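ok trying this again, last paste got cut off
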Amino acid sequence: MKILLSFLFSILLFGGSLLAQAKPSQPKVGELPIGKIISWHAGDAPKMFFIQRSTDGVYFTTVGKVAVADSISRAFYTFLDATLSPDEVYYRVAQASEPSGIQYSEATYYCSNAPNNIALKRISDSQVEKVVIVEFESAKNGEGDYQIKTEIQNHTFTVYERPFPVFRGKNVLPIQVQFLDPGFYQVQLVVDDEIEKFSFVKKKTKADGEVIVVKK
């Protein structure tokens, strides 16, 4: 019992140094005319940051370092990578900490000058019920939203809007339409500043009830 109490007291006394320390957050990457800007939050007890870059997400090289302004955990830092870098690149932050040594953030993939952030590949067959399935490809991970719009007396209204996650590569997005009244609709997929559009008509038939006629 005395040994257990002594062990617990040592953890409290030394601030939990035996516990795992938080690593730096996954960096966010943006682009400026003079280079790429990388931002992140520090982990616990930072001493120095090394910004590392990779073309394959496996092998990283250090492109710069940032000194610690103070030892506050979760403080916010930025770094400008003004060196010439490929269009497709990965970044991560290596944090030198005590007593845990080097801790690495999760890597962030970034694609600059992508010809299209998103590109529609396939929409549901011409007649479907309740759900329109949209397949599209994206050059990078991110977030988007889709908007269903209709026009009434020459005025356009958004009748439904919903966010969705975007993943690099192929994406499959189900769009719920069973609640819509018969009519003409336009769907806009918005990712960053890019918009992809398609239209469909929802109508009633005597034999089959409501159907969706998708206009490619």
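PB: full thing came through this time. The chain has two domains: 19-111, 118-215.
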